[in-house]
DUF4123 domain-containing protein
Amino acid sequence: MSDSLPQQWLFEQQRLGHALCVVLDSENEQPMRQALLKNSQFDCYLSVYSQTPLADLSEVGPFVFTFDNPHDKNINELFGRPATHWGWLASLPKGHLPKLVEHWRERLIIGQRPDQAVYRFQDARVLARALKHLPVEMHAAYLGPAASVCYWQGARWERVDNPGPGIHPVPAAPLWLQVPAPEQQAREIRRVNARRFLLAEHLDAYVKLAEHQDPDAWLRATLDQAEAWNWLAPEQLAFLLVKSLQVPAQTLTPQWQVCAGESPEEHFERVRLMANFWQGNAPL
């Protein structure tokens, strides 16, 4: 699809009788979200995070809006800046907006507590990478009720048509969670998920931290440390974030550093046991 003509996809989907919708990553698109809300009927949009464990973050989470006019000025404004990663487009049978939102709510939380993360389906980079790696027979389980999607894949607009739009159960081991992310994207995903974890589980301590230093700089430095130690599993990231939050103005003690010949797993287990001991939770 031509970089300058994503509207062709809109007109085609409309001729097929489909509803048009935009999946908006509203975290960095607050003015656009407000503009779309102002011009939408109450039954033409839904917050994906509402009615989920992430409801408190609804204001910065994804929204899905349906619209009728391919010439909508707000939608066309988005077309002019695809590199800002605002989200992507989908078409679906009319009246199926709630089904599409429920589809993504079922795929939103990855893993089990306390090792959970948020799947950022609203990011076109995540969508593009999944569709590139998934076999065609898995597209239906991934796209659900969407008949077709249109998205910016980094250099041009792409489209993928769903071979089996409808309601599909979440596979026991979703292949889209096994797609390796580019390192820069993986870092950004870790940052976003870490920030949401802190806001949801450790809000008071995170707010107190902001009284003395830049919380974003602290978070990036802590995640850089996790990367240096190769502590990238959810349990390891959560442990380092929480323990570092307890001493935000100090450096971690020398015992936290890697010992010679120690693997990341051995390093983590040693430090975890040490921390539990000093907190009186376990024998050393």
